[in-house]
Amino acid sequence: MSEGKKTRLITAGRDKKWTNGVVNPPVQRASTIVFDTVAEKNAAMLKRADKTLFYGRRGTNTHFAFQDAMVELEGGAGCALYPCGTAAISNAILSFIETGDHILMVDTCYEPTRDFCDSIMKKMGVETTYYDPMIGEGLRDLIKPNTKILFTESPGSVTMEVQDIPTLSRIAHENEIIVMLDNTWAAGVNFSPFDFGVDISIQAATKYIVGHSDVMLGTAVATEKYWPQLREQSYLMGQCVSPDDAYLGLRGIRTLDVRLSQHAENSLKVAKWLETRPEVDHVRHPALESCPGHEFFARDFTGGNGLFSFVLKESHPKATTELLDGMNHFSMGYSWGGFESLILANEPRSFNSLRTVANPNFSGTLIRVHIGLEDVDDLIADLDSGLERYNEAVKTTSK
Questions:
Q1: Strands (E), 99-211
Q2: Is the dihedral of CA 88, 83, 187, 358 positive or negative?
Q3: Which pTM was predicted?
Q4: Rounded Cα–Cα distance for residues 235 and 64 (Å)
Q5: What is the pLDDT of residues 208-248, one digit of tens each?
Q6: What are 147-185's pLDDT values in tens digits?
Q7: E strands within 247-319?
Q8: Which are the catalytic amino acids?
Q9: According to the UniProt entry, which residues carry N6-(pyridoxal phosphate)lysine (predicted)?
């Protein structure tokens, strides 16, 4: 009998071989695993890649439980763990790339992903071509004989474009190209990557999986075809995580559905309120038609979250500073996915360095918000006061 999403979130990773009969798998800290006999040691060595206690870097029962849970949520054949989302991205790429290869990277990727391609990959002799997130069938024109990886991120970082992943995956597979997806926004539960042709689904579990802004953690779940290589290459590059962090990731999964649902409800209410504001040009929330790729979101996703952006009609950096500096419930910080609300501003000129082929050419400031779990009316009141400060500052500077 198939289980619903909420049930899976509660039961995932709770096999008795990890829990020993208690509700939560104990935190098992270990570097050295000891054996009483040569036969035991040899047996563990033979099974060392298959959730068997062998050496601390291969994992303990705490890690195995979390890995099982991620596979149960996203699908795939296995899950590799990393100390942060950026490590998951870079090591997933490094596990499959060689000197002379070519990567197709979405132009709206997470900024550290771009930096990795422009520095480490370039130094290794790997070429990166950035493509428009809305390219669709036009992707065919960018494929080269040495194209090895198609990297996607949907919605896109900061500007929130939703990609047509099924179409892009189909084109990639016709050309024997590996499809990777940064699936952090959907938290692995609101978009089912392997149902849409993705080969490796990557998350900054730091965000919604953990959900409390207190752990750095990354995951990469792969299909049966690519799991052995991802697992072994990541191991050889020394990737491992603390069992305490794995435990907190597993604990976060238990409340993931209720948190995401409330984040989504709050954010949509705020987004619709922002649409009524005279200062706002448009709102980039995937659930709204004003967001590029909204039709793909409506077709492929089962829910939203708290992260979206809105664009002001004009750019007034000093006035934007007044807006940001006086917030009561929104803080400025380079992350999201926790219980708290966050806010950051991007002036139009900043996209000149962040984009190659998909510069949105805003004339106004883009403001990205993460809507937390506070009372949504308090958050709207906070934004209302901030926009009033913004308007007053615009009037003062224009005199």
A1: 102-106, 127-131, 147-153, 178-182, 200-204
A2: negative
A3: 0.96
A4: 15
A5: 999 999 999 999 999 999 999 999 999 999 999 999 999 99
A6: 999 999 999 999 999 999 999 999 999 999 999 999 999
A7: 280-284, 307-312
A8: 57, 110, 182, 207
A9: 207
